Amino acid sequence: MPAHGEMRPKPQLALSGQRNARRIERELAVLRNFISTYCRAHHRVSGRQDSARLCESCVALLSYAETRLRRCPYDPKPKCKHCPAHCYRARERAQIRKVMRFSGMYYVRRGRLDWLLRYFLS
What we know:
Elements: H1 18-42, H2 56-70, H3 90-109, H4 113-121
Helix pairs in contact: 1-2, 1-3
């Protein structure tokens, strides 16, 4: 929250530039992978043959996150945790933080630093 008398910087409208679109697609790929990892470990759905399928709550979270990511008004888009205007509702924000924390540690323990580098360097 800005101090009294200070104005919050207005976001620049996101131009559908190729660079911003590539960054959004990279972030979506990481997000899909992290949510898939979390779902496999926490939401074992009986009869689920395909490991890439998500449970209903994870599909809803991914859909919500994708919508928010594509509608981001900032150009260039900052990392969500460093954004001055949090667009996630409190429940979804808590859930995505839990997913990111679990999946990040999952990949660290398994030596898959490439996914973490994609997230931090995107």
